[in-house]
Design goal:
150 residues, mainly alpha, 2 domains, two-stranded parallel sheet, two-stranded antiparallel ribbon
Length: 150
Amino acid sequence: MQRPSGGSPKKSVDDQLQDAMKLLREKNAQLLDQKRTIIQLQEESDDAQTIRENIYKIAAHDADPPEWLAREGRAGARGIPITIWSDFHYGEVVRMPGINNYDKTVARRRIQRLAETTVDLAYNHMGRAKVAYPGCIVALGGDIDRKSVV
């Protein structure tokens, strides 16, 4: 090695090249790690968005509850009925002669009966029948239609 006039040894071209290659490898490793982090974060974000859009169908929907749902309750006031409906399997077809048949016509009839029974229970079997409800909460579970069955 040659010594410049400043007193510290001057690196040879080979040593400088090795240092540059080492630095380049380190920077490439950092860049690769950053790219992996970006990809992972994008996948996580995409997963959450996919769940909201494709599974729950709520990505573009902002909840805006009706006024009657957000009001404070008061003593003697009628409550709000709530019901959970699921497993309609609307659009599926089952043909088991003599045992079971299921199609859109049967599904519509069953859903209509469910709605009518819900109203009947609320008004005729839950206390003061002549008092109107402010609304009804219908929570929809899974398997509502053929497309949502996994």
